[in-house]
Amino acid sequence: MLRTDAEPDRIALGFPRVRRQHDDVSDLGGHIHLVLPDPTERAACFRVLAAGGGRVVRSFANADAWLEAEAEHEGGILLFHWRQPGPTSGEALLDRVAGRAGTTIFVAADHLSIAESRAILRGGAEDLLPAPLDPRLVRRVIDQSLGDWHVRQDTLSRHREAEMRLAALTPRERDILGAIAAGLGNKAIARRLDLSPRTVEVHRANIMRRVQAGSVAELLRLQFIAESASPPANIVRFGA
Q1: Predicted confidence (pLDDT) at residue 39 exceeds the cutoff of 80
Q2: What are phi and psi of 35, to 5 degrees?
Q3: In this predicted structure, what is the pLDDT of residue 27?
Q4: Residue 111 region, left (φ>0) first, then alpha (ψ -120 to 50), else beta?
Q5: Are the beta carbons of 66 and 33 closer than 8 angstroms?
Q6: Which of 74, 92, 151, 178 is the most buried if burial means most Cβ atoms within 10 Å?
């Protein structure tokens, strides 16, 4: 499925304006958003990214149009030109969206100083792409980034699921689960927590029931995912 919010593209291709469903944001992930003021550059990047189908590509003439369409709530890839016409500048746009776990940001720019480039990358952009944009480079970079994006979202999804299931445990059950994860048996756990072995057995059964784990292996997997999975930081590639 292919969609766009750029007025000429929408009319020519017959696609309706896309409205965000506030109660189902998860279904809108993985989109590619182009916020490029130059119509020729925007159309060229749109065509190369849309080729082959299987992805959602939306294009906008400026940052204000992107914000008006509420596209900021859709996770995925955002590519925008640093020099934006209208009230919302590229700097303001970066400040607004940087740090969102579901959005990977690329900035197209020309004639930047080293200080500006550092500020953009430290401000949350994944990478800087030279402008005017080469559509073939855009395709390569975004294809790779989109693959990484899906891996990150899968990791985050599993992390959230594990945390939700473990949230049902009481503090005492959390302590016992931590001891189980450390490899301790019931007697050792009982000594550590000053409990009877029978009480530990009862707690273990309650833990399995509360988190709906079918085996100790599944229980430990949930614990390890909850402990280790976290939103990965951006890896700056500097013009990959």
Answers
A1: yes
A2: -120, 85
A3: 40
A4: left
A5: yes
A6: 74
